[in-house]
Each structure stands twice: as structure tokens, then as C-alpha cells.
Design goal:
Length: about 325
């Protein structure tokens, strides 16, 4: 099979299209023929080893000390089950699926194996393959932070910094769905997009201060890393919560303590990756409550160009890569 592989950290030029053996599924695994995948912020970080200042060593510990430990990137995918292992009973060849490999990576390839009870679910018929591939990364992160970790409630005021990215655009839609009052922070060119996703107010970070005198929020979400606690604390209500999806190293290390000293709460860390979370967000997409935003769709051969767009730090939503054109399975009866 063909895959994109890298053996040293660097620019998109380190990616090579290589011919490698198609993996064989173990008894408890399925082999998936990939239809679409994405280039996410995680792929960018792992490929370029770009980490928040001071966390370079942590990056090497996570991704590989001397060079990349996982040569094939790609955190999320849609595709069709090609072969099932001897013990698999819940999938059969031809089933259309959505998978979230997350930190395991491996979706920038024509095929991948996953455990049948892993982070994998059937793709609803009303979601296309390209849309489906763009659901897991942003939406499970948004859902886990907003619903599970911070327990955002209807009627609460939430500010979302980085509202036009993969995570931010999912945060806007999920927050709106549960009935929060959403203020989205993005550049002027994305104002219309975030309004369409449900934002009640938009702040253009290029021309306005994010934090303004007399304006307070129950929850502040940073999905870019440009809203440090030193600034956010002035905009948080007395019992306000700060959600640090991306941020400064000092806030990652000491933010929770700094917030607690002011009677507030800072929630950071890493989003959980689970089949239950994936099922929640795919369910929302099937109901039409959540729609992954797609910036551009690249053919597989343009993988480097897809990475180059992500490297700008200014993609809108998600960058999809089509790996193979598969026909939607036809239902019998
Ligand atoms: N903690 C976790 O578990 C977790 C999970 C997933 C992701 N993350 C992290 O979360 C961050 C966001 O991920 P993502 O996939 O959403 O990234 P992304 O899609 O690459 O974010 C791009 C967006 O950020 C916006 N942006 C850039 N600079 C901005 C600024 N100064 N203020 C406001 N918006 C700005 C851009 O809008 P404009 O073009 O309008 O500037 C663009 O739409 C990344 O750092 C990623 O590593 C963390």
C-alpha cells in the first residue's frame, strides 16, 4: 500500500510517499481501506516537533527522542472494512466506518488496522466520507472539555478563543447546542463563518481586545494559546472556569493553582480518546446539530500541500485528504 512516511522532524518536505506492506489484521482487529483522512494540529506538531515554549523535551519524549517513533501520521479517518480478524463479530467487510487513531496515528495511508472494539464506529449513511473523516479530532476534544470536564450549562456565557479552527469551530457548535451564550474570537475574515455556526457575538482579535472592561464570562476557552491566565482572569466571573486546550507552558504547569488562589478554576490537560466520545459526536453530526467545517479537500498525492496549509496556523476548521474514492455501500432490502 502507499503511505506518507517521515523519518526526521521538519517541514512538509520531510514527508515521502512510500510503498509499504499492507498490514494484516490480528484476530481481534479489522483492516480498513481508508477513504479520507485529515491533516490536524496534532500531525503538524508531531511532524515539525512544534511545542509550547519550554516543552521541546516533552515533545521528543512523546513523539520520539532521536526521530519520529510513528513514521505514518494521520489521527482520524473514514473508510470501509476490508477484512476482519478471526475473532471479530461486530464488523463485516463492506461496513463504512469512522475511526479515531488519535495519538497512535497511522491514517495517512491506504489501509490501517484497528482493534474491532477500539475507537471505531459505523458511519451513519447521511454523512459523506470526507465530512466523516473531519469529525473525530476537533469534536471529541470540544465535547470532552466542554461537556465532560467543564460541564458547560445552558444559559452560561462562554468565550471561545480560536473559534474558526478545528477544535474552536466544534466548541462553538456544541456550546450553542447546549444553550450557552457564545462569544467567538477569530479574525474578521472568519466572522461570518462563526456566526453561521451559532456565535452570538464575534470579537476580531486583529482589531479588538479579547478581554474588555465590564464583560465577564462563566467559561473561557483557549483553543489557540493566546489567552494567558494573566489576561483571562479579568474576564472570568467570580466562579468562572478557564479551559486551557492550548496555552502557555507556565499556565499548563501552574494555571490551575493560580486560578484556585483567585477562587476560580482552570481545566487543562489532554482530551480523552474513547469510542463513547466518538459515538456522541458522530451522533450529533448525524442529527445535523454539528457539522465539521472543511477548509479544503486535497487529493492523496498533495499530502505535502495539505500539511503546508495546516502549518500556516490559519486553516478554517479541517483540512481533508481524500485517499480513495469509495462508493457508499448500498443497502439491500
Ligand atoms: N489539549 C488537547 O487535548 C488538545 C486536543 C486537540 C488540539 N489541541 C491543541 O489545540 C490547538 C487548536 O487546535 P486546532 O486543531 O483547532 O487548530 P487549528 O485548526 O490549526 O487552528 C487554526 C485556527 O486558529 C485561528 N487563530 C490563529 N491565530 C489566532 C489568534 N491569535 N486568535 C484567535 N484565533 C487564531 C485561525 O483563525 P484566523 O485565520 O482567523 O487567525 C484558524 O482558523 C492546537 O494548539 C492543538 O495542538 C489540544
Amino acid at each position: 500500500m502507499f503511505a506518507y512516511s517521515y523519518s526526521r522532524y521538519g517541514s512538509p518536505a520531510v514527508l515521502e510517499k512510500v510503498n509499504v506492506p499492507t498490514p494484516a489484521p490480528k484476530p481481534n482487529e479489522v483492516l480498513i481501506k481508508i477513504c479520507a483522512t485529515t491533516v490536524s494540529a496534532a500531525d503538524w506538531r508531531a511532524r515539525s516537533l512544534t511545542m509550547p515554549k519550554g516543552l521541546g523535551l516533552v515533545g521528543r519524549l512523546v513523539f520520539g527522542i532521536k526521530g519520529p517513533r510513528k513514521p505514518i501520521l494521520g489521527t482520524e479517518l473514514s473508510g470501509v472494512i476490508d477484512t476482519v480478524g478471526t475473532e471479530v463479530t461486530n464488523y463485516q467487510p463492506g461496513d463504512a466506518v469512522i475511526g479515531f487513531l488519535g495519538a497512535k496515528f497511522g491514517a495517512h495511508a491506504e489501509f490501517v488496522t484497528m482493534p474491532a472494539d477500539g475507537n471505531l464506529i459505523l458511519k451513519p449513511d447521511n454523512i459523506g466520507f470526507e465530512q466523516a473523516a473531519a469529525i473525530p479530532f476537533g469534536a471529541t476534544t470540544a465535547y470532552d472539555f466542554l461537556i465532560n470536564k467543564v460541564r458547560l450549562q445552558a444559559g452560561e456565557a462562554v468565550l471561545i478563543n480560536g473559534a474558526s479552527g478545528s477544535v474552536g469551530s466544534a466548541c462553538v457548535q456544541i456550546a450553542k447546542h447546549i444553550g450557552a451564550h457564545v462569544t467567538a474570537v477569530c479574525s474578521g475574515k472568519n466572522a461570518q463563518l462563526v456566526r453561521r455556526l451559532g456565535a452570538d457575538h464575534v470579537i476580531d482579535y486583529c482589531t479588538q481586545d479579547i478581554v474588555r472592561d465590564g464583560v465577564h464570562y462563566d467559561v473561557l476557552v483557549d483553543a489557540v494559546g493566546t489567552l494567558p491566565w494573566s489576561k483571562a482572569q479579568h474576564a472570568a466571573r467570580p466562579s468562572g472556569r478557564m479551559v486551557l486546550i492550548a496555552g502557555k507552558t507556565s499556565d499548563m504547569l501552574f494555571g490551575a493553582l493560580k486560578a484556585k488562589l483567585k477562587g476560580k478554576k482552570m481545566i487543562g490537560g489532554v482530551a480523552r480518546e474513547s469510542r463513547e466520545l466518538l459515538a456522541e459526536v458522530v451522533g450529533l453530526a448525524a442529527e445535523g446539530v454539528f457539522q465539521p467545517v472543511i477548509d479544503r479537500n486535497f487529493p492523496f498525492d498533495d499530502m505535502r500541500a495539505a500539511h503546508t496549509l495546516v502549518d500556516t496556523g490559519h486553516k478554517r476548521g479541517n483540512v481533508v485528504v481524500s485517499v480513495a474514492k469509495l462508493l457508499e455501500p448500498t443497502k439491500v432490502g
